[in-house]
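Supplementary Text 2. Reproducibility record for the structural model of the 197-residue chain.

All settings were left at their defaults, and a single model was retained for analysis rather than an ensemble. We include the record here because the model underlies the residue-level annotations in Supplementary Table 4.
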Amino acid sequence: MAGTFILRARTGRAFHLRRGATLRITNTFGSQVVDTWAFKADDIAEFMSMEHTRVHSSTASPVKGTIFRSNRRSPMLDFVEDTSPGVHDWFFAACDQSRYEMLGSEAAHDNCSDNLKQAMREIGHSITHVPCPLNLFENAPLLAGDTAIHPPVSRPGDFVAFTALADLIICLSACPQDMADTNGTGREPRDVDVEVT
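Retained model, structure tokens:
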């Protein structure tokens, strides 16, 4: 895939990213968290793993220069550019229906876990396990001893970019969280811009 698209608020999308291609995600309004997954295109049992990436990283959080690795420790994505203040999360699980029920929702609620499963189904893959995502722009300073999620510090137009180090399937979810400050104090999920070159 090459080109641009708008990832609509509350939705997910999966697409192929060839080795050597660059993925750029722009936080159009500055406040939107984007859950991000990667799977090997020829074997989705191999997926980007935050646990395995952290073991091989020299930083406490994802930064430009981080090589994201798979559950088999092979390199998948190179974090090549970040114009934001650099606050991203690689510890928190994706939101799911149970999370929203715990927050008081009595009805079905859009969530990143279901967005991942649906997006993967749409391109012909059925998955049951939801790996821990890379939560772009999420402000969750766990290593500072704070277990809360705070509003993002990214600004409108800030972007991150990654280079694919293998043939991948990428899945992105514009987090639907509207019951906490994950997507800003206005609690309004927003669109983001995505470009593949």
